Amino acid sequence: MEGLIMAGQLLLGLTILVGLHEWGHFIAARIFGIRVNKFYIFFDFLFPMPNVLNFALWKKKKGDTEYGLGWFPMGGYVDIEGMIDETKDASKLASEPQPYEFRAKPAWQRLLVMLGGIIVNIILGVLIFWGITYKSGDNFLSMEEVNKRGIVAYPVAEEVGLKTGDKIINVSGKSIKEFSDVMGSDVILGENVYFTVERDGQTIEIPIPNDIYEKLSDEDSQGFIDALHPFAIGEVSPDTPAESVGLEADDRIISMNDTPITYYHEFVDMAHKNAGKEVTLGVLRGSDTLNVSPTLSEDGKLGFIANPDLNYEHIDLSLGEAFVVGSGRAFSVITDNIKGFKKIFTGQVSAGKAIAGPVGIARRFYGGVWDWGRFMLITGMLSMALAFMNLLPIPALDGGHALILLYEMITGRQPSEKFMERTQQVGMIILLSLLAYIMFNDVIQAMF
After folding, report:
1. Which domain holds residue 212?
2. Are strands 231-236 and 304-308 parallel, antiparallel or unpaired?
3. Residue limits of the PDZ domain (predicted)?
4. Which residue, 290, 308, 326, sits at the end of a domain?
């Protein structure tokens, strides 16, 4: 079931993102009087071979445009009259340009058509982040609250020198107000970062290696750090070991197999070590202590959502304030992608760890539980990431076309249609090679 939920979320998310991206090209073309022959979600051919297995699951002609749903579930496209792309080559453009064709329009109009999809993806991402921020307000966990008990250092953090119970005083010499900043991109994707921590009354500097993202990208990584906190059961999931033994909201698990439990990470560690086994839990319910004996799932889960004993701060935001904060969060996705690519190009992170394909996106991001709030957040993030990726100056991507158009606008010389066809072919080879690598990497990670 989890696999179907992951696939469903991925399919819906990509349909929204690709559909609106292609609509951006479509509406820009129509504004400038350019004919659009087709508008398809998914491909009605065996991508990238436009003349192989041509059929659609649904199609309807309206005006000059055929709208349809293709059978090949990867992306989508618009067929713009007079433009060389993955659906046609230069031989299709042998006749004289007509006024309604893409190639007959001024370079600045063609540039806006090429950037239309990117612009719409950015607008969508900003709107999603704006709406989420306005609805939820600004919720954060202060470092002051965290430092009452200190942090939990997971194995990767322990490897770099941090210890559970450390209190983080500053990051790279700068004071930090919110705990999320300690785990943000400035740390994970930063350069020459160090933590100043208080440990047993002493102040210690802990350097964070530049390849920390590489270590955290491993499938078996538990994460980096967390706030040390006691917990109570918040919600019991149906058909789980927790429900089978009658655990309830507000119960507190105080022991497992007679070993005391104070903090949430202690429970998680013991549960993983006893995965698939029957355990005896000591449970505090009000003033009563109960003993129950559930059998944990094979992945060490009991089946509840934990309520941490931490005081989060909340600030309600006006529409204007939410727009500023939400837009900043949206565009931080692009800046984080830039930092990530820098890590790849400098060899600090392998491309296989940093780049995810459809399987990786479904597993790492959407997950196996359908939560509309999470779905919208991930879709907003992917919309900004899609805008960034399409802006890369690679032939066959929007950014590659835009770069050529900028050259034409600066020099006043329009490249030949044969040149455009060749660059499109080179770009498709690059993209297909990258896609094959990503898909292979996805399968390998899913298997192992």
Report:
1. 143-227
2. antiparallel
3. 233-287
4. 308
- Between the alpha carbon of residue 54 and those of residues 1, 45, 49, the distances in Å are 32, 5, 10
CA R_g for the chain: 26
Give this prediction's pTM.
0.78
pLDDT at 427: 67
CA angle 106, 107, 111 (to 5 degrees): 125
Predicted confidence at residue 87, as pLDDT, reads: 55
Burial class (CB within 10 angstroms; exposed 0-12, middle 13-18, buried 19+) of 59? middle
Q: Which of 205, 227, 249 finishes a domain?
A: 227
Q: CA-based angle 59:61:63, to the nearest 5?
A: 155
State how many domains the chain has: 3
Q: Are residues 68 and 103 both part of a single domain?
A: yes
pLDDT along the chain (448 residues), means of 10: 72 87 95 95 84 90 93 86 67 73 92 96 96 92 94 92 95 91 83 93 93 72 86 91 93 96 95 94 94 92 92 93 95 87 72 54 57 86 90 86 90 79 72 61 49
Q: 277 vs 143, 264, 267, 300, 303, CA distance in Å? A: 37, 19, 14, 9, 14
Instruction: Report the distance separating Cα 50 and Cα 41, nearest Å.
Output: 15
Whether 305 contacts 237, CB under 8 Å: yes
